[in-house]
Amino acid sequence: MNFAFSDEQEQLRDAVRKFLEAKSPSAEVRRLMETTEGYDEAVWKQMAQELGLQSLHLPEAHGGQGFTFVELGIVLEEMGRVLLCAPYFSTVALAANAIMNAGSDEQQGAFLPGIAAGETIAALAFTEPNGKWDASGITMEAQGNGDSYTLDGTKMFVIDGHVANQIVVVARLSGTNGEDGISFFSVDGDASGLTRTPLATMDQTRKQARLDLSGVAATPLGDPGSGWAALSKTLDQAAVCLSNEMVGGAQKVLEMSVDYAKVRVQFGRPIGSFQAIKHKCADMLLEVESAKSAAYYASWAAAEDNEELPVVASLAKAYCSDAYFHAAAENIQIHGGIGFTWEHDAHLYFKRAKSSEILLGDATYHRELLAQRIGI
Questions:
Q1: In the chain, which residues have pLDDT < 70?
Q2: Maximum CA pair distance of the chain?
Q3: Taking the model in full, what pTM does it have?
Q4: Co-location of 31 and 47 in the same domain
Q5: CA 113 from centroid of its chain's CA atoms
Q6: pLDDT tens column, 53-93
Q7: How much of the chain is in helix, strand and coil states, percent to nearest 5?
Q8: pLDDT at 181
Q9: Are residues 136 and 95 located together in one domain of the fold?
Q10: 3-state DSSP call for residue 237?
Q11: CB within 8 Å of 162: residues ≥ 6 apart
Q12: Where does a domain end: 226, 250, 276?
């Protein structure tokens, strides 16, 4: 394990940062926030064709580049830094990982090449109106057998579910409960009986949707009824990915705070010369650097498929959630009145920090999960 990134990894970071700074400036983020789709199709294709971002950690046998979660973490960190509006997290960090964890090699060969090429937008439909992130929250039942199933019920808070071509739905076999019977199913985005409704959310930079399924035809991924292990692993991997994304946002708001503290003058001197502001910035720096360490370690564990992954995934998600939210809140405080205005970007990062804190389970949930996983 080496926390020093290689030259190739730093080159990847530089290339992604330059691309995103050109394609995702603040004005473009604000424009896409107001659209229903929430992303620019041309930029999505460029991400795949020019940088190969969608194919980064996918297997080479299925059109990917065969990199690891370390490289994926670098990309997501840079995306979090600019609040990229694109269905990348839903497609790559959630759906693609679910397909790799649950699907057979043949099924992976059917779905992953489209994702790698930027032709497929995918989503993972897991949570329901109860808002739970564990097995008890999955109540949607699948009826059928063999390769033919139908799904009835509602999935909520599905990231980019309104624009996905392919939807991976998590349901349970009829008559099962708990972790038993959990299954993955593939559903076409335009399937008969599927109604997709965009949701009005606090964080407009990350679109979510409600999916109502009524007798929707679904194809099982992997063995029906034995999907809990794959789902648990998928959620751990997604928590690692989200931790890296949050680190990028936290680093950005730290830089915003320091830059403003240097130029904002009160009582004839920069506010950064006042002890209270110095302490705020110092505390933010400590938390952001600690969050990076947690996120990078978790990326390594995911890349190695290490047995520590469940523990460090929850640890990273809990710590990075708190660090990002605190940094985003302090950024507003340091900016003063202007930080509360719609015109300033501080509130965009604050909203993303809050939505990311809740996504995949908040810090309290992951601390409890961490305690269970280490036997406390």
A1: 1-3
A2: 76
A3: 0.96
A4: yes
A5: 21
A6: 999 999 999 999 999 999 999 999 999 999 999 999 999 99
A7: 55, 15, 30
A8: 94
A9: no
A10: helix
A11: 36, 37, 196, 197, 198, 207, 209
A12: 226
Residue 85 is part of a domain; what is its CATH number?
1.10.540.10
User: CB within 8 A of 112, min separation 6: which ones?
Assistant: 58, 59, 62, 63, 64, 96, 99, 100
- Length reported for the chain: 376
What Cα–Cα distance (Å) separates residue 245 from each residue in 12, 114, 149?
16, 24, 36
DSSP bridge partners of 214: 152
Strand intervals (E) in 135-277? 141-145, 148-159, 166-173, 182-188, 194-198, 208-221, 265-266, 269-270
Q: Is 109 exposed, middle or buried (0-12, 13-18, 19+ CB in 10 A)?
A: middle
User: Structure tokens of 267?
Assistant: 């009582």
In sequence order, what are the beta bridge partners of 142? 151, 173
205 and 282, same domain (yes or no): no
Rounded to whole angstroms, the Cα distance separating 366 from 360 reads: 9
Q: Is beta strand 141-145 parallel, antiparallel or unpaired with respect to 166-173?
A: parallel
- Please tell me whether residues 214 and 164 are part of one structural domain: yes
Residue 4 contacts by C-beta under 8 Å, 6 or more apart in sequence?
Answer: none
CB 84 within 8 A of CB 53: no
Residues 246, 265: Cα–Cα separation, whole Å: 30
Burial 221-242 (b: 16+ CB within 10 A, else e): bbebebbbebbbbbbbbbbbbb
- Residue 332 placed within a domain: yes
Total tally of structural domains belonging to the chain: 3
What is the reported pLDDT for 2?
A: 59
Same domain, 198 and 248: no
Identify the domain boundary among 116, 137, 161: 116
| Joined tokens for residue 210 | 């409600």
233 and 348 within one domain: yes
Residue 264 has what pLDDT? 81
- CATH number of the domain enclosing 177: 2.40.110.10
Answer yes or no: is 1 within a domain: no
Domain of residue 192, residue span: 122-226
- How many angstroms separate the CA atoms of 269 and 266, rounded? 6
Q: Beta strands 166-173 and 122-125: pairing type?
A: parallel
